[in-house]
Backbone:
């Protein structure tokens, strides 16, 4: 079991460029999440999904879009990157049946210049 | 929405001593309070959680206490070891699956 994997691990973008972060989980989890982590601010929820084909906004959704076309994948898109989106992005998933423990990926460090 | 405050932001302890991290929450409907540990370069990992129908929970050297009336909960680590050095996050939720995290506490255990 790989658990939760994230691609890429690092990325540098110029302002205005677009990119997609990929999250994949092999645990058959229903719920998936995208967070951003900034110094002194903890983890803030960007978007989440409670099942294949569904997405919902979290605490800080502006400037991001997501898609959950397959149960195991959750994509986070930045259409026009801004320096304020420089952050470490974490994906997580949870099964919701026996436990609501969230399993996190290793993170993607994104720098927007 | 839920607002979770966490203190202190940094904590340095001598190996073998205890460490205590405190969190407060604003939403009285919150009923699930997990704690996550994040080691350098990794994603957070659940270490212990507590529900609002329980006042205290222990797992070896780690314990969590909850005071619903005061809306605060705490993480206690006893007999700290170097491997306890990490960033710790508290979180609160009223529906189990959507968490609001505190800002984190960086714990350093001095040998």
Residues:
């Amino acid at each position: 079991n790989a658990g939760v994997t994230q691609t890429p691990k690092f990325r540098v973008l110029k302002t205005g460029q677009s990119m997609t972060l990929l999250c994949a989980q092999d645990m058959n989890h229903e719920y998936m999440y995208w967070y951003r982590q900034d110094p002194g601010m903890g983890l803030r929820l960007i978007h989440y999904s409670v099942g294949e084909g569904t997405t919902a906004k979290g605490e800080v959704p502006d400037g991001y879009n997501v898609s959950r076309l397959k149960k195991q994948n959750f994509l986070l898109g930045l259409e026009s990157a801004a320096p304020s989106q420089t952050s470490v992005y974490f994906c997580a998933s949870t099964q919701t049946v026996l436990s609501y423990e969230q399993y996190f990926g290793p993170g993607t460090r994104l720098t927007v210049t | 929405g839920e607002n979770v405050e966490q203190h202190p932001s940094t904590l340095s302890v001598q190996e073998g001593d205890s460490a205590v991290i405190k969190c407060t929450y604003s939403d009285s409907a919150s009923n699930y309070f997990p704690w996550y540990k994040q080691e350098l370069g990794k994603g957070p990992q659940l270490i212990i959680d507590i529900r609002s129908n329980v006042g205290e929970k222990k797992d070896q050297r780690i314990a969590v206490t909850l005071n619903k009336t005061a809306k605060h909960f705490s993480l206690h680590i006893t007999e700290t070891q170097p491997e306890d050095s990490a960033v710790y996050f508290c979180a609160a939720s009223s529906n189990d699956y959507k968490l609001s995290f505190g800002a984190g506490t960086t714990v350093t255990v001095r040998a």
